[in-house]
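It is worth pausing here to work through a concrete case rather than discussing structure prediction in the abstract. The textbook approach is simple: state the sequence, then state the predicted structure, then interpret. We follow exactly that order.
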Amino acid sequence: MNARSTFALVLPLILLALPNADAFEDACSALKEALWAKDSGKRAPALEKLLALNDPRTLGVLHGYLIDTIPALKDKERRLESLESERERRSLQIERRKKNAKDDAEKAAATTAEADFQKWLERDYEPAKKDTENVRGRREFLGKTAAELVTGLSAEKRLAEVQRLAKLVNDAKSTPAQREAAMECYARFGDKDSVTTLLRVGREAQKERKRMSEELPKREADYEKVKEVFHRERKQLGGNKITIATEAQMKKAQAEMDEFQKSLGAVTELEDAAFRLLPTALNSLSPEQKQKAVADVLALAKSADVSIRTSAIQALGFVNEPAVLSFLRQTVLAPGTEAGTRVACIDALASLKDEASLDAILDKCLKDPEWSVRASAIAALRSIRSAKAVPALLAAAENEVGRLRDDALATLRNLTGKDPGTISSWKAWWEKAKNEGFQPVPESEATKVKRAEDDGGTRVSFAGIPTSSRNVLFVVDVSGSMRFSLDAEQEAGAGQTSRLAVLKRELKAALERFPEGGTFGIVTFSSFVTRWTPKLEKMTPDLRKKALDFAANIEPEGSTNIYGALKEAFDMAGRGTQDKFYRPVVDVIYFLTDGKPSQDSEVSDTERILSAVRDWNKLGKVAIHVIALGEADLQFLRKLASQNHGEFSNP
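Step two, the predicted structure:
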């Protein structure tokens, strides 16, 4: 039973023993009705009536409503994300139909489809969007109101409320929603122990996540064995038939895997919330309390445990304090600091837009022997935005090869709003611009400038996304739906282009242009995930022919195991977080799919997949370029690219 349900059961008994019980109960009901109403303007008046009663139970009521709101908002955001994908997919489909219509009948069909789309927007999409915004506003309203209410309490009542929330935060038996709601309120209250409490909760959750993550591979392997038996038997019996025993075994294995992943996801959310709220808690403290709390976080930032260390450093990226800035700058320059910590510190300095660290980034980080550190330095220059960065970026674009050359040019485009093309053209532009007092365009106005056709680099292109990288992994979907046409959930007919045809065409073109001596690999996925070769290979004429033969003979079947494919990709590339692999072998992953994560995958929840990839790629800085075909989940895949330094394409 959750806290809200418990509150609902005991409230009537409490109210009977208190004066003005009916008035308080009526005010609570009126506030709840206003909070859940579509008109957000009703909230403030309803709250005023409740506050006017000056009842000490008010904070508990607000907190109970917040507990209800957090999971409700997550559900609505997932629903809206699904609708966003549907909206984008249908819009693109209609545009293609209108463009390709050859006669009056096809034009009329396109017009009808467009009218149906508009009705769908009005009936399904727009109401869901407004509803989500309403619930998001409710969450912010409740958190802010609770914090303001606490500040007006007497010292005794304030202490009692803080202790109540701290108990909820620390109660491992509470639901994730209860603990997250308690943390959101508690972090705003300015309690002297809030930072210490959040750090403890975050570290405990991190320790549990690490334990479960270490257990996960065995569970995944066991699940794969059951799934393999299931698919083999269904294939042998034909017609999707399966024995009762095997079906029961599959359902049990799937339920156990889902429950384990759900628990892992809850622990991860708790850890994220604890560290995410650290800056809020720090900034709510008095100057004296804040100084001590910052010292506690800095101590964790020096932990021997890499996961704790990097999480603490990430939290410091939101705390603009002299001691924090000094630590970050010194750590970046300190001899012997390992690459992962340097990456985390550079990212934190970028988050703080610390101009005082610019010289260190330009003089040392851009010349670091680890490519992931140099990638972080180039990204930091985009955030700090200084004219001093331009010569260093020009030098990086000229001297770097592959992915980092692309990064340097992309940052130059972002800072300047221009793209002269080749390095010599950039240098000519800079000679003139620096004498004219050049200043970077404001970040709010920085737009994505169209990449010049010729920038002097050697490029491989996959589905319209080029790269200069010589270390690339192709991860491609070979599920059964790849036989379908681009615009329909049915096999491509005469005159229609299938998704498989697009995959084969693009993979062939990329392999033909891939530079000899470069490192590459191919991972295919459907229900199962397969490496074309056991390890990454150096391109040779003979291997190119074998890779092209393999690409030409791909045959699709099965479902869409996106999580397994990405996990295999990072295992093959070398990870940059919770293990010893701080040196990913590849710096670019091309990920092509036409689907959504299948329910029979180890993980089908898209937010959990994104969280796992962020974790694997936190320090590695691998760019994931994503190509979405057909009925793919566009919003999820767009996030996958944007959160991992990549580009997104929907051809």
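Step three, interpretation. The beta strands are 460-462, 465-467, 471-477, 519-525, 529-531, 537-538, 588-593, 623-628, 648-649. Residues 104-151 form the longest helix (48 residues).
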